[in-house]
Amino acid sequence: MPYPTDRERDRPWVMRTYAGHSSAAASNDLYRRNLAKGQTGLSVAFDLPTQTGYDADHKLSRGEVGKVGVPVAHIGDMRRLFDGIPLAEANTSMTINAPAMWLLALYVTVAQEQAEAEGHDPTEVLAELTGTTQNDVIKEYLSRGTYIFPPGPSLRLTTDVIAWTVNNVPKWNPINICSYHLQEAGATPTQEVAYALSTAIAVLDAVRDSGQVGQEDMAKVVGRISFFVNAGVRFVEEMCKMRAFAALWDELTRERYGVTDAKARRLRYGVQVNSLGLTEAQPENNVQRIVLEMLAVSLSRGARARAIQLPAWNEALGLPRPWDQQWALRMQQVLAFETDLLEYEDIFDGSHVIESKVEEIVAGAREEIARVQDMGGAVAAVESGYLKSQLVSSLVEYRRKIESGERVLVGVNRFETTEPSPLQAEGAKAVETADPVAEKQAIAALERWRETRDDEAVRVALETLKEQAGTTANLFQASLACARAGVTTGEWAGALREVFGEYRAPTGVSAASSPGEGAEEIAGVAASVRATSEELGERLRILVGKPGLDGHSNGAEQVAVRARDTGFEVVYQGIRLTPEQIVAAAVQEGVHVVGLSVLSGSHLEVVPEVVDGLRAAGAGDIPVVVGGIIPADDAALLRERGIARVFTPKDYSLTEIMAEIVTVIRHARGLPDE
User: Fold this and answer.
1) pLDDT in tens, 402-411
2) Active site positions, annotated
3) What whole-number distance in Å separates Cα of residue 592 and Cα of residue 536?
4) Max Cα separation, the chain?
5) Secondary-structure percent of the chain, ordered helix, strand, coil, rounded to 5
6) What CA–CA distance (Å, rounded) separates 428 from 266?
7) For 181-209, how does the pLDDT look when each residue is reduced to its tens digit (9 = 90+)?
8) What percent of the chain has pLDDT over 70?
9) Pair type for strands 307-309 and 14-16
């Protein structure tokens, strides 16, 4: 967005809605409707198989196709996704990380095809494309979990995308360095700034050292680096965070990379407010939470977001409907067009309160950035487990404050009395339900695609990709060739898996510190764990599992830490496990209970498979509990399938959950209630 002078009214930010589900056709229809309502940018949500480099027919994709986003398996899907939407005129944000190069190659190819069909020069169209690929894989190892390859090759792919776009698609943002999920994983404002800027240093150093961009062009690189941040409800603190972010980014790019152009050094960021901070209890309260969080990134003109997307009020209940997303869009439009917010210079300049808080965050972030750099940088701090353990410990402290009531959540741990909500009067119809046949349709369409393409062209394209992956060549051109040949997402990622290998990130659980308060309640549950262990003649063991492709591991990690603190022996092997792997581990480790965490909406598919697998393995006496964003009707179905307990976001007390799990074990083993 152009930046006006202080004598002009500031222009509104790009307004987006994070959207996509079921299929490319269904998502295309949703995008067209949203654009017609005044949305000024697209924000594409891809499903988990696409984000993790699998096709719809892979065993890990079961139950995940089209659930949290749109499946895009090949160039045909990308054509359908943007059918009737001129990409030369669009501003498209794509939340895609490990396969960012691949999805951008598909997008660029469709843009070129559209240009050719209109009789335009494809090269000129590429020069006008605007948008963003998230493409921050480092934070995936810390929070969201959609990584594929080890950190080194992942950073190489990011570097190649940046170098290629700077030279070929100069208005594109090739990376969103994403602190959003760091906050969801527990980061304090200081940690969020410090770890995001540590990632920026790793990325910019890699680009500079790759030899693909000369020093004279580093200003172009810096000028296209964007950030994607989170905004919590403590909006004064969050606004100060963004002012600190802007000051440190300006300082870093000037001093470390020699960028003299002040415009290139501006912090350019988009935002989504805190989705995981929305509550299942009294969800109507989420409306005011979302509005207050939006103020954090819009009130301060000098640190104002240039793109905003808001969640819907009911995202803690399930997938929002188009009407719910429209409501979120209207919140932005009222603020931008009805208020006088955009008519003034920065209203916080000169405030000693704001300046003091900003300096506090700046000082703390500088200190933490220096600590990470002393370790060898962000990649080394990921591989050592330092960053992950810091985030897990911070989230432990955050949850302690909620459980103790020190941090108030209205309608959750205080003011819980409520009238029935008319917004939920429709029950299950109050949320969108992904088409249950979308997965079968995607698999059938994938089979048809493979039957109609040129297999030899596919083979040659994939062989070229693998050969170049073994060198230092930029892989974007090879990826473009794969896109044109009809290669699938799973095939592109599979070829690179053969060369780069895969990776399992540290969980951060073993090094996480325990809360200092709440010890009395924890001690009470620990006594029950000890007593039950003595009655059974062995220490209680819990397996915490993440089935399917859902990489949001924050909840699972917190459960594992609290289980450890109450005396359980914990088996936690991280994310992205098949039901078969979970069953095998449960039997091998001789656990007394299996706890599954599922946030992607695939609970009805993957959770019963674990129960059935335990029965088939002769371990049907091991109870299974599950936690996640699970609608009430689905929870009832899971209990019918043999799930002992279903926990949802309203069950915020981890210590009480541990006590309930002890009860489940005692009932399963025929022991009387304590």
Assistant:
1) 888 899 999 8
2) 18, 180-181, 546, 550, 552
3) 10
4) 79
5) 55, 10, 35
6) 45
7) 899 888 999 999 999 999 999 999 999 99
8) 96
9) parallel
